[in-house]
Design goal:
The protein is mainly beta. The protein is built from 1 helix and 19 strands. The chain has one domain: Jelly Rolls, CATH 2.60.120.560. Strands 1, 3, 4, 6, 10, 11, 13, 14, 15 and 17 form a 10-stranded antiparallel β-sheet that branches. It has a 7-stranded antiparallel β-sheet with strand order 2-5-16-7-8-9-12, with no helix packed on it. A two-stranded parallel ribbon has the order 18-19. It is globular, with a radius of gyration of 18 Å.
Length: about 300
């Protein structure tokens, strides 16, 4: 790891510690509260609490931009994955993409599983969802493609069966990563988080530094870190092979929320862009930027 990346990570970890008090306060909010005010300078809300403006749906079997059976909904201040219009799941895996791609950022959101999975949901998808990081563009997905080529920040809920089921895990549809500098081709890697049962809200955060480093946090605690993001491997079908060159660095992409058959709700979906103007004399300068983008310094 380069010295520059070590310095960046040290600063981000310190920022994460200072943000824990704010995260704890947010977790006490009412279930149907509107999008929260953002306490830290530079954070933006990706969800306005009322509409899906800025989001692009892609459901397997349908063209990009279609939202069949209103799978993705904005209601009561929450972004919901809802299957009220479904009779059966029928492998209609869905993803809701935010319209802007990023490379270096912090993503923070709250989620909770509710109700029961609909008939036809695969057993592994019970109380299973996630946020796809560095995903391919939504309009580059073929109609019958199941998952976007991406890095999955996986969210799991406990099954009340006495078995541990951590959340904040890593899965790799069409990608590989390195753990402690060593390439791994294992598809899913568990985090160190506890198991969360029932419909409690969980705060998840990802610190993403291009292709070099990603850190997962659950309720403010670091639970997994990895680097060396690259395309390649399997566990994705129906895609354009040209978009998955073997072992090509994966340094940027889109954020997408998953639909895998179990209802889930999201709120307080916030992002801090870490790439921007680092010239202290420019109006666009912000002290939280860690990667320079000189073009953003222009007035």
């Amino acid at each position: 790891m380069s010295q520059t990346v070590k310095i960046i990570l040290s600063g981000l970890l310190l920022t994460g510690v200072l943000a824990q008090a704010s995260q704890a306060e947010e977790s006490t909010m009412a279930d149907h509260a509107p999008a929260a005010a953002l306490p830290e300078d530079g954070w933006i809300s990706l969800f306005d609490g009322h509409t899906l403006n800025g989001w692009i749906p892609k459901v397997r079997g349908y063209e990009t931009g279609l939202n069949p059976l209103q799978t993705f909904r904005a209601e009561n201040g929450l972004l919901s994955v809802n299957y009220a219009g479904y009779e059966a799941f029928e492998d209609r895996f869905g993803h809701l993409f935010y319209e802007v791609p990023y490379s270096h950022y912090r993503l923070r959101l709250e989620y909770r599983f509710i109700g029961d999975a609909i008939p036809g949901t695969p057993g592994w998808a019970l109380r299973n969802s996630g946020a796809m990081l560095h995903a391919q563009a939504p309009d580059s997905m073929n109609p019958d493609q199941d998952f976007p080529i991406s890095i999955e920040f996986q969210f799991l809920g406990g099954l009340s069966d006495g078995q541990a089921r951590p959340t904040g895990n890593l899965c790799t549809p069409g990608t590989h990563v390195e753990l402690a500098g060593v390439l791994t081709e294992e598809h899913c890697i568990n985090s160190r988080s506890p198991t969360f049962h029932g419909d409690q809200w969980v705060t998840a955060e990802a610190i993403v530094l291009g292709s070099e480093q990603v850190q997962h946090l659950i309720n403010g605690e670091s639970v997994l870190a990895y680097g060396g993001l690259m395309t390649g491997g399997g566990v994705v079908s129906g895609h354009d092979p040209e978009l998955k060159p073997e072992r090509a660095p994966l340094a940027r992409g889109y954020i997408a929320l998953q639909s895998e058959g179990h209802p889930i709700e999201f709120r307080n979906i916030q992002l801090l862009n870490l790439k921007g103007c680092m010239d202290p004399e420019a109006a666009a300068y912000r002290p939280h930027f860690t990667v320079s983008d000189p073009t953003s310094c222009a007035d």
